[in-house]
Structure formats: C-alpha cells, structure tokens
Backbone:
C-alpha cells in the first residue's frame, strides 16, 4: 500500500529500531512506548486488519505470535507479556496495517480493560 506507514517501515523508507526481520515478519520498538517493553510485530505483506485476514493469512499470523513470545523474553519481559491486536474503529486501530503490540517489562501490565 503506497501510503501505509507500516508498509513504508517494512520497505525501509522509514527507519525503525528493528528487533526482528525476515521475509514475512518485521518487529520493531514502538515509537511511543506504553510499557518498558513495547514492540510492534507486523506482517511485511499488507493485511489491513484482523477483520480482513483470511485462511491464507493463518501461517503468518501464527508466526507473528511465535515471534512475539521469543522477542518479549529477549527484550526484557521473560516472566510474561501481553499481545494486543486492535481491530477497526471500535478496537481503536490507529494504523490500518495489521500489527500486534507486545507489551511487558519487570512489573505486571495491569488490568486488561476498564470495568464499565
């Protein structure tokens, strides 16, 4: 996608602090971290969101989660972490390229959602 921020990062047009890259997956530090460990794991191929993912995307989605596990430990969250995939307007997806936030650190992340 021509104007997609994450496609530009994956294509090397915009710099990022990368922690993993291969032919299918790129992982890098979030530019505005919410936790001591805050990484983004993206497929290199543009997938808009989980809402548009298909059965053909299952292998790359599985690899994203497996890589998230390894990177969380390597980057300073060996005792656990949280993976967040925001989807669409209700899920507050800000960049329209599927991405998983991997958040953690030395202290617990806290409640998953505000209680209503």
Residues:
């Amino acid at each position: 996608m021509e104007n997609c921020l994450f496609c530009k990062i994956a294509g090397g047009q915009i710099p990022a602090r990368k922690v993993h890259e291969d032919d299918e997956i790129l992982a890098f530090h979030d530019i505005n971290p919410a936790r001591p460990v805050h990484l983004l794991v993206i497929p290199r191929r543009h997938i808009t969101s989980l809402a548009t993912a298909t059965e053909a995307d299952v292998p790359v989605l599985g690899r994203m989660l497996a890589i998230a596990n390894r990177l969380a430990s390597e980057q300073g969250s060996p005792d656990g972490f949280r993976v967040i995939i925001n989807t669409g307007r209700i899920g507050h997806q800000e960049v329209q390229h599927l991405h998983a936030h991997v958040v953690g650190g030395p202290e617990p992340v806290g409640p998953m959602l505000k209680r209503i």
Residues 58-74 form the longest helix (17 residues). The longest strand covers residues 37-43. The two ends are 38 Å apart (CA to CA).
